[in-house]
Amino acid sequence: MSQLLDLLNELKHNGVVVLPECITNEELVKMQKSFQSQLERPAFNSWTGYTQTDRKRLMVEQLLTLDRCFCKLPLMPLINNLIVEYLGKDICLQEAKGWQSLPFKDNFHPLHRDEWYCTEYYQSKTIPRSLKLGCYLDDVESGAFAFVVGSHRHQYQGQVGELYHQQTEDYELTKVVGKAGTLFLFDPECLHQQSYPNLTARNALFYHFFSPSIVLSKNFTQWGRFQRLLIESSFLSGLNYQQLAFLGCARQPCNDIPDIQHFLSLTQPLNIAVRSLNEAHYLFEKIKARLFRT
Ligand SMILES: O=C(O)CCC(=O)C(=O)O
Questions:
Q1: Does 267 lie in the same domain as 228?
Q2: Which of 41, 95, 155, 193 could form a disulfide linkage to 49, CB 3.0–4.6 angstroms apart?
């Protein structure tokens, strides 16, 4: 109990807390292998794989479809209890993704507060809170997660997004360096970034927890950054009601039709390109069958 309270107090005070070792070596290896398998190729047509929306990160979406270990991680009692104590009982997992950060020398991913809730809606209301769980899959010495201690402790909205705090020299950054398997919780209202330079590719997981009742930012939903959480159903077997609820199964069903605005003008040419490729593949197979008919 006192460990939970100590960690909770540190999280409340600093905005970030590094957790004690929770993952076994066997689980870590499974997660590393499964994550790596998604980095072999980009998601395309019927291939699953990584997606890429910026220059230096290969995103692995929907971790809970990949391996049971990714499902078990947020359910570990210490993690689960800390999140519920910090955010309240109606909280659940909303995103489970990770990324490989490719090496970079510049301030590629500058200091920011996450843009996820609708800032206009909450203009004169209490700022909604969320938590992220970070997990390194590699030993991290450079390119570590970095944050400004205590910068989440403000009552009124700070500026969200990456445009406002580019002069990193103005801030004292604390870095979370650590071995593969290092776990940390942070309040994304705390100023944070991936520090630079990042000398080697870094694989890391980021789970995001918040209440289903929160009104989300349109940038978050319509630009495809927020995706509905998918789970491989066999990973749910044996979980109790509380665990299922924590993974989001107790939410009101979401009836919104996804309305992604990303590169709208490219939709038609991209559809044509993919269909042409499939036609070409079909023709190729047909010619091959004719030529090699016995
Ligand atoms: O990749 C990192 O270390 C930074 C993570 C981050 O900025 C985020 O999850 O919002």
A1: no
A2: 41
Which candidate, 34, 30, 50, places its Cα nearest to that of 42? 50
Distance CA 263, CA 270 (A): 10
197 Cα–ligand 1 center, Å? 14
Residues 172 and 224 in one domain: yes
The reply to whether 32 and 169 lie within a common domain is yes
How high is the pLDDT of residue 219? 83
Same domain (yes/no): 115, 249 = yes
Same domain assignment for residues 187 and 216: yes
Mean pLDDT per 10-residue interval, the chain, length 294 residues: 94 98 97 98 93 94 97 97 96 97 94 92 92 98 97 75 63 96 97 96 98 90 82 96 94 75 83 93 94 82
pLDDT at 168: 64
Whose alpha carbon is nearest atom 7 of ligand 1?
A: 193
Distances (CA, A) of 284 to 234, 277, 289, 291: 38, 10, 9, 11
Q: Which residues line ligand 1 (CB under 6 A)?
A: 114, 132, 145, 188, 192-194, 204, 206
